[in-house]
Write a structure and sequence with these properties.
- This protein has 172 residues and is of the alpha+beta class.
- It has one domain.
- The strands form 2 sheets. The protein has a 7-stranded antiparallel sheet. Strands 2-3 form a two-stranded antiparallel ribbon.
- It is globular, with a radius of gyration of 15 Å.
- The mean pLDDT is 94.
Length: 172
């Protein structure tokens, strides 16, 4: 795992042909299918949903977990992530290195890092170097799963419906 500054996250996105808008990943590509969902309030459902969404990402790809905002964090939440980061050699504050780049074989560590976003309602992008699927979690209690594949879109939409997760509006 490697820690990245905001600029390094932007450079990684550019290198992997991920479009940026005002410095952050942009998802409005007309070829994207987007599943919108509300983040469930039950911790167990959040955990299962996060695992299932993560399984849809290409396993043999790098993953960038990029935290961009944590406006309502509690000190214990930051302490938990700080411990995770220290266990992986991190010495900088999250504000300085908000990106967490995981290599192809670090999927379990990437999932462990990602789970903080839906649990604590921190803004977070999950991006892959294949640029086929993406996840965004917002502190506004909304999540997005973005894919170029219609079958993947339908599978995620069915999953969200089956889990009885509320959906604001889905596109395409």
């Amino acid at each position: 795992m490697e820690f990245l500054t905001q600029k390094e996250c932007q450079n990684w996105c550019t290198k992997n042909k991920i479009m940026l808008d005002e410095g952050y990943p942009e998802f409005s590509n007309k070829n994207n299918y987007i599943v919108n969902f509300y983040i469930p309030q039950q911790t167990g459902v959040v955990k299962i949903l996060a695992e299932l969404l993560f399984q849809e990402l290409p396993k043999e790809s790098e993953k960038l977990i990029w935290f961009t905002d944590w406006p309502f964090y509690k000190p214990y939440e930051m302490k938990m992530l700080e411990c995770f980061r220290k266990a992986h050699g991190g010495t900088e504050w999250l504000i300085k290195t908000p990106g967490h780049l995981f290599r192809k074989k670090e999927n379990l560590d990437a999932l462990a890092c990602f789970i903080y976003a839906p649990l604590f309602l921190w803004d977070c992008y999950v991006l892959t170097n294949s640029n086929k699927q993406k996840i965004f979690i917002s502190h506004d209690e909304i999540g997005l799963f973005i894919t170029e594949n219609k079958k993947t879109f339908q599978r995620i939409l069915n999953l969200v419906n089956k889990m009885d997760i509320k959906i604001p509006e889905n596109k395409k």
